Structures are given as C-alpha cells and as structure tokens.
Amino acid sequence: MATLPAEPSAGPAAGGEAVAAAATEEEEEEARQLLQTLQAAEGEAAAAAGAGAGEAAVKVEGPGSPGVPGSPPEAAADPPTGLRFSPEQVACVCEALLQAGHAGRLSRFLGALPPAERLRGSDPVLRARALVAFQRGEYAELYRLLESRPFPAAHHAFLQDLYLRARYHEAERARGRALGAVDKYRLRKKFPLPKTIWDGEETVYCFKERSRAALKACYRGNRYPTPDEKRRLATLTGLSLTQRI
Fold this sequence. Notes:
Oligomer: single chain
C-alpha cells in the first residue's frame, strides 16, 4: 500500500528562524523563572530578618536557657546565604533586569549574590554593576568598571550615556548649577570616552568620520545615485537610507 509523500519542508532559512525563535523563547522563559525565584528569595530574606529580630527581642532570659541552669546560650540563627545561581543564570537575570530598567531590583539581586559571583566579570554583570553604581552616585566605581575591559559595540551607546551623565552630574554638583551646552561640550573634550566603550572614531554632526568620508566620495563621483546605489552606500556606512539621503 503506497504511503502519501511527506510535505515539503519550509527550507533552511525558515528552519533557522524557527530555531532562533525557540531559543529566544527559552531564554526569556528562563529569565522569567529566575526573576520569580529572585522575588521569592527577597520575600523569604525579609521574613527571616523580621523573625530574627523578633527572636532577639524575646531571648533576654540570662546567660543560659530557662530549662537547664548553666547551659550555654542558644546560637543565633545563621543569616540567609546568598542566592545560588550558575554564572549563566546570573548573566541571564542581569540582562533581563537591565532590559526592563529595574535598577532597584538589580541592586538587590547583586547584593544577594556571593562576592565571588559579583566579581566574575561577565559582560552583563559588569554592565549591571555599572548601572547600579551610577544610580547610587558612585561615579569613581562606575569609571573603574567601564575602563576594566572592552565591551561589545552593541552596548557602547548605553555605557557612553552612563559615562557622560556621570561627568555632567559631577560637574553640576561641584558648580552648584545646571550645565549649558557649552559646559557639556567642554567636559566631553576634557574627559573623552574610554577606549573600552568607544571605537575611537570622532563623530561630527551625528556622523562618524568614516561615514562622512564615504558620503563625500560618493557625492563627488555621482551626485544622483540610484536607489540600489543608495542601499549599498547605506550598508557600507552603517547609516539608514534617510540619513544617507
């Protein structure tokens, strides 16, 4: 008896997209589960702290227990230990909290980790520590973290914003007034971006030097490029079609 032929597959491209989407969904689900674990751990730590304070207020009966004279006092309950996550899970939680903008929860999560885990130096953990340092006004620690290692270009804009805002806040605090555009320009010249969060290319009027050079060369050769030439130029310079036009 003949069997029906199998339906054709959607092709390698569709299969790759499906695999990537499934991986992203798995990462998001893991992040949600870890965030729920974090919230539960925070609640348990708060409850344990309240119970410990209540027991300490009650146990004022003298050097020994009331039942056995001379017995040693009961040992105090151990403080709750840090959260036990794998390095990958820690990075996943930090990334999720960074994307959600939960700086307060991020600070509590980092504080609950063992010191060795905070000092591992993975990229999401360092970016999380930098954000927490900025929120706390610990600008020297922020600068130290940003200069500790090169960061991926995808995160340069976020880290550059933290760095510049920290410089502006420091100057405003020292001068006792808000900064104007000229003040901020002078600060950017005095304190250039660290090489770890900058590709080294100067930006003039929102265009990097390499992009400006490519646009000038194209304009000299052809002042009226076709749509295809515009798309190729946009790909070459990293600009959008609107910027290129």
